[in-house]
Amino acid sequence: MKTIVLLITASLTATSVVAQTMKPMPGMAAKAAKFGNGSGIVKALDPKTAKVTIQHGPIAALAWPGMTMAFVANPPTLLRSVKVGQRIDFTVQVTATGPTVTGIKPR
Questions:
Q1: Which residue would you say has higher pLDDT here, 38 or 13?
Q2: pLDDT greater at residue 21 or residue 103
Q3: Per-residue burial over 8-19, b = 16 or more CB atoms within 10 Å of its CB, e = otherwise
Q4: Are 56 and 39 contacting, i.e. CB atoms less than 8 angstroms apart?
Q5: Residues 85-95: what's their mean pLDDT?
Q6: CA 65 to chain centre
Q7: Contacts of 6 (CB under 8 A, 6+ apart)
Q8: Helical H runs in 41-91?
């Protein structure tokens, strides 16, 4: 019986320690999201996965050269306003999870 009481007490103590929020450590500040604006041509659309492939020029704010890459669109409804082959201006947000297109404007 003592063993069961000790195990329950230990698990409750461990749970309360795990549930505490971590305080930021010096030098470990979370990186803020970066934003950039680009222009390019829609090369592919995949509404099921909310992805748009864009051939774009350099994006100075992100230090990106021109390239062709797939982005997730957030919200996915952004894909309704464009079609393959169309020239666009777009906004991209880069976070720890990757780049996301947050705005698309047909030219």
A1: 38
A2: 103
A3: eeeeeeeeeeee
A4: yes
A5: 96
A6: 20
A7: none
A8: none
